[in-house]
């Protein structure tokens, strides 16, 4: 499932391509991917322009010039492609937004959705339960340490809890724990202040590095996209079961913590 870095990468690429552009045609291939009747969706979206694209946690928000907001969550298996018809991947498209000769294709929305809201206040209600943005300038190490002290769950289970922090999932929680040298099964409220501080700085480094590397999703956003998926080769433990630990050489282990697959080094992460 796309996490914060993947969605931030999409946001940047979308702003480069569709900011200020008019949506000239709308095609809905799967009605379950939207939350209003198809005729209403088309009426409120077609012939309107995208003012900006923003991100909240693992969601993207498309702000249109008529105050309509399209709220996207790709969920498991969802992705996007932007280009002309001849460049389109040979995959089933659930939604297509056209910008004259180019199109934004929403693919793999088996569980994901593109919901329409009239007014930002209604959209924000859908996001009320989300925790702080880990890369927000207001989210300091002191704030994180304070939050950590009240959480009895494991590092793995708590980091992926969207009500605790927003945008972190299986991949980056494992990478953060490894970078900080902390076992993912440890209890968050049992970390010392230096350990909690180390985890906070690990979070900052990993997420920023992943955004700068295009995240770990393998499908390019457009035909000339060479950035998306660049973090795949930089993952140190995630999906590296049986490979040597880049720090000590021991085998990377795979286990389940709170029903979440988890990768770690049993030697480096105590």
What tags apply to this protein structure?
alpha+beta, N-terminal domain of MutM-like DNA repair proteins, 4-stranded antiparallel β-sheet, 270 residues, Helicase, Ruva Protein, domain 3, single chain, 27% helix, 2 domains, globular
Task: Walk me through the structure.
About 25% of the residues lie in helices and about 20% in strands. With about 270 residues, it is α+β, with helices and mostly antiparallel strands. It folds into two domains: about 5-125, MutM-like, N-terminal (N-terminal domain of MutM-like DNA repair proteins), CATH 3.20.190.10; about 140-265, Helicase, Ruva Protein, domain 3. The strands form three sheets. A four-stranded antiparallel β-sheet has the order 1-6-7-5. A hairpin with a 2-residue loop joins β2 (about 50-55) and β3 (about 60-65). The longest helix is centred in the last third of the chain and has 20 residues, at about 195-210.
């Amino acid at each position: 499932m796309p996490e914060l870095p993947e969605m931030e990468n999409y946001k940047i690429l979308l702003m480069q391509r569709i900011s200020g552009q008019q949506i000239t045609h709308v095609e809905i291939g799967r009605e379950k991917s939207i939350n209003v009747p198809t005729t209403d969706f088309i009426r409120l979206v077609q012939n309107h322009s995208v003012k900006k694209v923003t991100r909240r946690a693992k969601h993207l928000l498309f702000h249109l010039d008529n105050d309509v907001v399209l709220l996207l969550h790709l969920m498991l298996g969802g992705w996007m492609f932007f280009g002309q018809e001849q460049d389109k991947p040979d995959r089933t498209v659930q939604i297509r937004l056209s910008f004259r000769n180019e199109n934004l294709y929403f693919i793999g929305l088996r569980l994901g959705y593109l919901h329409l809201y009239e007014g930002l206040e209604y959209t924000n209600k859908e996001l009320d339960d989300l925790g702080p943005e880990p890369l927000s300038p207001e989210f300091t190490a002191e704030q994180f340490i304070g939050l950590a002290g009240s959480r009895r769950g494991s590092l793995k289970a708590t980091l992926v809890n969207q009500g605790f922090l927003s945008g972190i999932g299986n991949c980056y929680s494992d990478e953060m724990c490894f970078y900080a040298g902390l076992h993912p099964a440890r209890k968050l409220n049992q970390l010392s202040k230096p350990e909690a501080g180390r985890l906070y700085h690990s979070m900052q480094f990993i997420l920023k590095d992943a955004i700068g590397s295009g995240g770990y999703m393998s499908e390019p956003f457009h035909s000339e996209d060479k950035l998306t998926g660049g973090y795949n080769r930089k993952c140190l433990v995630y999906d590296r079961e049986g490979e040597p630990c880049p720090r000590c050489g021991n085998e990377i282990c795979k286990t389940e913590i709170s029903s979440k697959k988890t990768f770690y080094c049993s030697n480096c992460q105590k």
